Amino acid sequence: MRTSTAALASGLAATAAAAETIHGVLVFTRHGDRTTKHYGNTQQLTSLGAEQCFQSGSFYRSRYLSPESPTHISGIDGEQYTRSQIYATAPDADILLNTATAFLQGLYPPLNSERVTTLNNGTKISSPLSNYQYVTLHGVSASSPDAIWQKGDDSCPAAAAAQSNYKKSEGYLSLLSSTKAFYESFYPYLSAVYDYPAASSLSYAGAYDIFDLINVARIHNSTGPAKDISAEDLFQLRTLADQAEFNTNYNASEPARQVGARSLAGAVLTHLGDTVSKGQRKFTLLTGSYDTFLAWFGWAGLTEASPDFFGLPDYAGSMVFEVFSDDEADGQAEKRVRFLFRNGTEDAVELKSYPLFGLNKPDLTWTEFQKVAKEKGSISGPEEWCSICESRDGFCKMYDSQGSSSEGVKIKNGGGGGMDGEMIAGIVLIVVGGLSLLAAVAMWAFVNSMRKKTKGENGATSVVMNAGHHAKGWDSASSTKSHEKVTV
Ligand SMILES: *[C@@H]1O[C@H](CO)[C@@H](O)[C@H](O)[C@H]1NC(C)=O
Ligand SMILES: *[C@@H]1O[C@H](CO)[C@@H](O)[C@H](O)[C@H]1NC(C)=O
Ligand SMILES: *[C@@H]1O[C@H](CO)[C@@H](O)[C@H](O)[C@H]1NC(C)=O
Ligand SMILES: *[C@@H]1O[C@H](CO)[C@@H](O)[C@H](O)[C@H]1NC(C)=O
């Protein structure tokens, strides 16, 4: 393992569950496999995507709802949906609503037949689709103030401005030129895309979009040429998309870039607060997109626990906040919060626990969790969001009284500045496996945020590489260091 925190993380999954009571959880899930994002609102969750989300719901059902599970949630009705115990929500967009629906179908599958109701006249009645359970799903319109919780960066002018600053950074400009020929080489695969009219229109500026078009085509299009793209090239496209999107959605010195994470933190505090205090709510499902995941990975210090968090989460990946208490403490001890992440839905993909906020602790007391989240700039509600976003449109109009403008609103905007201040632009060593064991090691110039200083357990500073992410470089002059294996 690369760092002490990563080592800590990997041990946690196994040790969790001993002598503790789980009171409730919040799951934030990414959508499953879908058609390409390129054509905007034509995108759809595919059957594969629905199956992934269903599998994810089933996975959490066996972990949290099954009475046999050592990690089942105390007091939850695992068989029959009980409204007061479950809250599920998704932005009002087909893919996300359907993601949540499929997840809930896995979480609460049809009731078994003994649960059918009997009418007064003796007739037995079951519901359609073999006793399907209708779990309430709250769709949130983009114009509602509640839209901030799952998609906090949307319609936020300050976030958009801060995010576009990435395109002015040295790291960006350097990759833009060093990867130009690589991107242009994919033109034969994208020539059918009407708004990429020539090879010259392909570059790192479209890193995610190009990766997405090719990735989707490789999964679904049996007639197009994309299936001929090598796994290695796809990996490069993904890695470049990882970097473009991570840096767009997180920058320690520009807190507005990660407004999505800070809003999500506010939602986590509110929903888990209900679980912690009243104990009625046991399972909360929120639904969103990779940009909020990446913003969260940066903002919550997860990249310090594992460099894997610089990468895009897989389809239907999910993060989980567990509220639990230590049984040994006899109900006296304060409730605690633990963070876990599951990078996809295949059976082999584990749900792993990671320390939050770079604090190197496996979990936090509820008080500490709240305190650190607030210090780092979690957003408490729409009024604060409007102020941070410098938005006066839509629902923000109602906070903008008599032209006094939102400058008068007190905001807490200091979040994010401190903990990751050491993030530096740098050069990364890449160690690769591949066809040849010795082969292909390389460097990227200016791969910001892939090289980080991390404090080891004994206070020693060590360098963490995003080693899993790179197979070849653009800067052949740098390849002299190529055979150094980076171990930290
Ligand atoms: C019992 O009541 C239901 C609902 O009104 C009706 O559909 C059904 O035909 C009734 N069965 C009998 C045996 O009367
Ligand atoms: C982060 O933001 C600072 C300040 O705006 C900027 O100098 C730096 O280049 C940014 N880093 C990236 C990776 O965009
Ligand atoms: C499959 O790829 C071909 C060639 O690029 C393209 O014309 C076609 O529209 C694609 N089909 C789908 C369903 O995207
Ligand atoms: C999730 O998986 C993708 C590859 O499929 C990888 O790039 C990324 O780093 C992984 N994230 C974590 C936190 O494991």
From TrEMBL:
Tree of life domain: Eukaryota
Entries under SUPFAM superfamilies matching the protein: Phosphoglycerate mutase-like (SSF53254)
InterPro entries for the chain: His_Pase_clade-2, His_PPase_superfam, Histidine_acid_phosphatase
TM helices/strands, residue ranges: 423-447
Residues spanning the signal sequence: 1-19
GO molecular-function term, one example from the UniProt record: phosphatase activity
Gene3D superfamilies, A to Z: Phosphoglycerate mutase-like
Keywords: Membrane, Signal, Transmembrane, Transmembrane helix
Family the entry assigns: Belongs to the histidine acid phosphatase family.
PANTHER family linked: ACID PHOSPHATASE-RELATED, PHOSPHOGLYCERATE MUTASE-LIKE PROTEIN
Name of the protein in question: Histidine phosphatase superfamily
Source organism of the structure: Cladorrhinum samala
Organism lineage: Eukaryota, Fungi, Dikarya, Ascomycota, Pezizomycotina
